[in-house]
Amino acid sequence: MAHWFHRNPLKATAPVSFNYYGVAGSPAANKICNDLRMTRARLLEMFTDVTCTPEIMKNATDAYFSLLQGFIVSLDGTTQENKMRFMQNFKWTDTLQGNSPSAQQDAVFELVSMAFNVAIWYTKFASRLEVHIPRLITPAEKGRDLEPRVLDTYLIQCQAEAQEVTIARAIELKHNATLIAALAFETAIFYQKADHTLNTLEPECSSKWRKYLQLKQHFYMAYAFCYHGQTLLASDKCGEAIRSLQEAEKCYSRAEALCKEYRQTKGPGTTAKPSEQLFFLKLGGLIKNTLEKCQRENGFIYFHKVPAEAPQLELKASYGLAEPIAFELPALSEQCTPEVYATFDLTKGAKNDKAKAKEEEVRPVKEPDLKPQKDTGCVVS
């Protein structure tokens, strides 16, 4: 089955009971613990539910985060840390590190880890979680999901992929070649930047991802040179148009080679098959046909010399660039009041072994195998 986008696996996590025997000293406190357990389990179910919509995901996320914030923000009117923040141990895997989990006894770690998974689900909204990272007591280890290089790469990739949709739409609506070339060029730069962000990460966990970023970079550079060639031809610069299309042909061939390298490279995540998509295949034919047209016209009409050097692309899109959408946490749950907060008694927690974190196995997330929609040649999702 052909897929267009590379996707690293969702993070996996151990179950959390929130059973604070003795610590929760009132019915209202016990209800918060029970609701935390249920809303967390519900949210985790949504990650693999094929019927889940963005609206359902938002409601599930808000339900859990509104309660979880009751263990993070100060509720007693002081500037001290919430006394419940370090009560529970949380385990999460990382998208590039296989099934080896990291653990922190910190509700902020749970917040940013769960938000990361929600961001992966939404894909283009990955910028939402960075503001909370500096609050972590334990810094992220190299190569972990909350480490700056990994976070930045996800963000840049999401912007690039969102922009791919704009390019496909521009082609479908037959916008002018200058705009399409500029959008493609800036998208290629996004992929190049994402690849460079990973260049100091260990190859065993980043090589496959980098191959994907590189093939997308060369693919969109091929698009940029192809449509730039059309613009040059329309301006009666046939020799320069031929050179631009020759460069498009070169970039396209490199993208084809990288597709093979990507499929053969071992690493985390699903293996996309962009070279089997009509959107990819149509570009090869477009480059070939446009180049042949330019060469014919140059032989009959223009007689221009073909430059030795490819044109320097300095293209800026006037509109159509994708921008991240800001994310805000939901309001604190009405259940989390100072009065209820005061009934949590941490001095009683140590007296009961059941309050201690139970060692739970972290099992990989079994993601649904979604069937691609009809391939029109321009729809890339």
Automatic annotation (TrEMBL):
CDD domains: BRO1_Brox_like (cd09243). Residues 115-381 form the BRO1 domain. It holds the Pfam family BRO1. Residues 350-374 have a biased composition (Basic and acidic residues). It comes from the Eukaryota. Residues 350-381 are annotated as: Disordered. Belongs to the BROX family. This is BRO1 domain-containing protein BROX. It comes from Salarias fasciatus (Jewelled blenny). The lineage of its organism: Eukaryota, Metazoa, Chordata, Craniata, Vertebrata.
